[in-house]
Amino acid sequence: MNDKCIMKCQELKRLANKNKELTEKNLYLQKANEDLKGIIRTISLTSERVVSEQLKVCGCVEIEGTRTSAAYQDMVGILLCENYTVQLKPLDDRKRLKITIYEREV
Hints:
Blueprint: H1 2-56, E1 57-64, H2 70-81, E2 84-91, E3 96-103
Antiparallel strand pairs: 1-3, 2-3
């Protein structure tokens, strides 16, 4: 009877240790899960912003010249009058310009 009691006590201790180990692992996995959910939310919001921004892009035009050239000033003037927004990026050592045309935000 004494041996059975000792074996049962040992088994209970082993099970208690296993339970503690599994509980700690569960808490760790729950925390990791919450962290991953936060990352997914952040990626989702960022993705929505990028897609939204891309939908606003109407097109791109590359022209020869600089900001002071007549072609640039005429094109940008027309686009601004038509309620578009433009973004300028110098190319080829500032001898060419890339004009990105966006819908104007309301």
